From TrEMBL:
Gene for this chain: gpsA
Keyword vocabulary terms for this entry: Cytoplasm, Lipid biosynthesis, Lipid metabolism, NAD, NADP, Nucleotide-binding, Oxidoreductase, Phospholipid biosynthesis, Phospholipid metabolism
Presence of keyword Lyase: no
GO biological process, one term: glycerol-3-phosphate biosynthetic process
Record's protein name: Glycerol-3-phosphate dehydrogenase [NAD(P)+]
Organism: Kushneria sinocarnis
Subcellular location(s) per record: Cytoplasm
Principal location listed in the UniProt entry: cytoplasm
Gene Ontology molecular function terms on file: glycerol-3-phosphate dehydrogenase (NAD+) activity; glycerol-3-phosphate dehydrogenase (NADP+) activity; NAD binding
Length: 380
């Protein structure tokens, strides 16, 4: 097995001198948690990483490799893994939570008694909590802990590429300017940049929503789509994502940034994305269960899609692509039939923040009344 040392190669160039070391805790032993732990360590922080699997703990501490999630990459040797939550959180000033959404609340609840009001607490998880309440991960952090410094880290961040040292960037979103600045200091290095945002929900929704469209694009890729098709899907996905997020109080401008279009591009283009891979496998003819099992990791979009569709229906937000994906994944609709039906549906506005969707539809309906022979069957 070849183990690249991208993390270690960048360490000396990035390590600040003469500063007191920041105490960082990473909750989660998956690929993103491991990549972030290593980056923080290369920046000179004292890093402890919490994971459940004792064997993996021993392997990380002895061999400095996460054999399960990032087998080909050397972790900064100063990262100390442990299955003891109290040890990991002891004196932690910054806690990064990289736990899938399904287990996020339970893990945060376990950590909560050890988290103080001044602890910087950042979610890196791109998902939505199951249930009727539509809780984002940062809302769980707010509910379960006393921390006054909550943030969200999200962006085009395939963990394997970060581990390889590919130049990458992310967004730290928080209402609190000190939280933003301290995370920028703690995580930026020669191959990783961190930009700031004050639109926490927008950034968080960008990360959660793009997963479902990555499944759709993966599926379309397996069905032999062209590049025009990919571009149309991604751009209309962005329209849906921003429409949904704006209805929940986010800024549409956030979707022009790394956590919006940036993350959408990478996840809809790379076979390294787990969501894309699940979609691709379904496009090749596998069932959802087979695709998820073959992946062996969490593709958050599979769990997110019904939560989004349900919430959009309740809030009256038009989400045809998400709705279509839901029907393909869970109601047995054939993806080719679904694509045809989408192509025949009403044609609204390109950018709704300049031409409102209803204005474009009204004009079409008026035109259909004036020139009935030219109109599409499906126009109402
Ligand atoms: N992998 C990637 O490229 C990126 C992932 N993310 C997000 O980060 C989050 C974490 O993803 P990954 O690090 O890839 O790992 P992952 O999603 O594969 O698993 C994370 C870790 O959580 C642990 N875990 C699962 N259930 C648990 C439970 N009940 N109690 C305790 N630990 C549990 C797993 O054992 C694993 O160590 C995801 O929500 C993902 O959307 C964000 C950016 C990039
Ligand atoms: O969020 C990611 C890249 O930014 C990773 O996407 P997946 O969860 O689909 O692997």
């Amino acid at each position: 097995m070849t183990v690249h040392s991208a993390f270690a190669d960048h360490s000396t160039a990035s390590r600040p001198s003469g500063e007191r070391s920041l105490q960082v805790a990473v909750l989660g032993g998956g690929s993103f948690g491991t990549a972030l732990a290593s980056i923080a360590a290369t920046r000179g922080a004292h890093v402890r990483q919490w994971l459940r699997d004792e064997q993996l703990v021993a392997h990380i501490n002895e061999q400095h490799v996460n054999v399960r999630y990032l087998p080909n990459f050397a972790i900064d040797p100063s990262v100390h893994a442990s299955s003891d939550m109290a040890f990991v959180l002891e004196q932690a000033e910054l806690v990064l939570v990289a736990i899938p959404s399904g287990a996020f609340r339970a893990v945060v609840r376990q950590a909560a008694p050890l988290i103080g009001t001044e602890t910087l607490l950042v979610s890196t998880t791109k998902g939505i909590e199951a249930g009727d309440d539509f809780h984002l991960m940062s809302q769980i952090l707010e509910e379960e802990t006393v921390s006054r410094h909550i943030g969200v880290l999200s962006g085009p961040n395939l963990a394997a590429e970060i581990a390889e040292g590919h130049l990458s960037a992310s967004v730290i979103a928080s209402d609190d300017d000190m939280t933003r600045a301290r995370i920028q200091q703690a995580l930026s290095c020669d191959h990783f940049r961190v930009y700031a945002s004050n639109d926490r929900f927008g950034v968080e929704l960008g990360g959660a929503l793009k997963n479902i469209y990555a499944i759709a694009v993966g599926m379309a890729a397996a069905l032999g789509m062209g590049e025009n098709t990919r571009s149309m899907l991604m751009t209309r996905a962005l329209a849906e994502m921003s429409r949904f997020a704006v209805a929940r109080g986010a800024s549409p401008m956030t979707f022009l940034g790394l956590a919006g279009i940036g993350d959408l591009i990478v996840t809809c283009s790379s076979p390294l994305s787990r969501n894309y891979r699940v979609g691709y496998a379904i496009g090749e003819g596998r069932s959802l269960e087979e695709a998820v099992e073959a992946l062996g990791q969490v593709a958050e979009g599979v769990n997110t899609v019904h939560l989004i569709v349900d919430r959009a229906q309740r809030d009256g937000v038009y989400m045809p692509l998400a709705q279509a994906l839901y029907q393909v994944l869970f109601e047995g609709v054939d993806p080719r039939d679904m694509a045809l039906s989408l192509m025949r549906s009403e044609q609204g506005s390109d950018v709704e923040f300049t031409l409102p969707r209803e204005a474009a539809l009204d004009a079409q309906r008026r035109a259909a009344r004036t020139h009935p022979n030219d109109s599409r069957d499906t126009l109402t």
